[in-house]
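Journal club prep — side note

Before the paper discussion, L.F. wants everyone to see what a predicted structure for a comparable chain looks like in token form. Sequence:
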Amino acid sequence: MEGWFSRSSSDDQQQKPTSSSSSLLSEWNSYASSQDTSNAGISFDLESAVRSANNTVTGTFNVVSKGVRDIPGNFQSATSSLPSGKALVYFGLLLASGVFFIFIAFTLFLPVMVVMPQKFAICFTLGCGFIIGSFFALKGPKNQLAHMLSKE
């Protein structure tokens, strides 16, 4: 075993010296040339297929980028309707609180609604209020109120 690591030859194992990069390359070239002659009937030009795919992707990208450049307005007007990170955090917190209260209302207080209906009503109302409030935080109070009062 020690001879294998130090690359020394032993009496029972004869190793011939090989240069791995040149022999591997020459073996690959001979294999590739033999495959080219044996598969003469089946021809697939990989280079032209890649070139065709590249031209298709490039053409599609050019059409899309031209359409994006032709959007009216500037970048500031396009991103003005996106909520800020703070608004997204408030939205997530309020939405999670609302879902939590509705979950509590249905799992804890719905089965005992006959005994204590006010606890179910309080939890359900708080949950719905938090969910509606989350959308106020996301869209802004003025936009959300205008959306809620529209006749659509």
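L.F.'s comment for the group: The radius of gyration is 36 Å. Keep this in mind when we get to the figures.
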